[in-house]
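The instructor's notes for this session suggest beginning with a concrete chain rather than abstract definitions. Hand out the sequence below and ask the class to guess, before any prediction is shown, which regions might be ordered.
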Amino acid sequence: MSIFVDLSDETNRIAGLQRMLRTIGLGENNSSFLIPITGVFDTDTETALKLFQSECGLTEDGKYTFEVWKHLNKKFNEVVAENSRSGSIRPYPESDGYEIAGGERSELVFITQLMLNSLRMNYDLPHVPVNGVYDEITMNSVRKFQEKNKLNATGRVDRRTWDKLAEDYNDTVNDNQ
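After discussion, reveal the predicted structure:
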């Protein structure tokens, strides 16, 4: 199933483009596509779109045409299908008692921030800068997520919080198929 991009609403159209590029980036571990979903066609969006066009053998003009959308939508659906087969996101460390907490810099923080931003609309969460640093903005967003899910609202990501984030993120991605 495809994401429907409402071509009459420019903000939704660009946000759809950004969401698909971002999902492709997550699925293929390509950080060049991990752009913020703002609904604004900015330099990051244009650069990511040109890279996508290049990878597909299309003219690298940064224009979001119907032809580009068809290629993007096809790739998006392939990535979503491939990643939904693998089950839940589970790179969380197995060690007992581990928590992602303030000041940590890691890939797990980066993934946490991506999941929080993907769930923003579901939980009315603030935008979190995706930088791999567990800062106060990330901690507050995690705390709000925990509160809304009746988890212990510490602002730290423990195993229960991670599992709920991963579950909701995977449900959101699968709903967009």
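Then share the key points. The chain has two domains: 10-85, 107-175. Residues 66-85 form the longest helix (20 residues).
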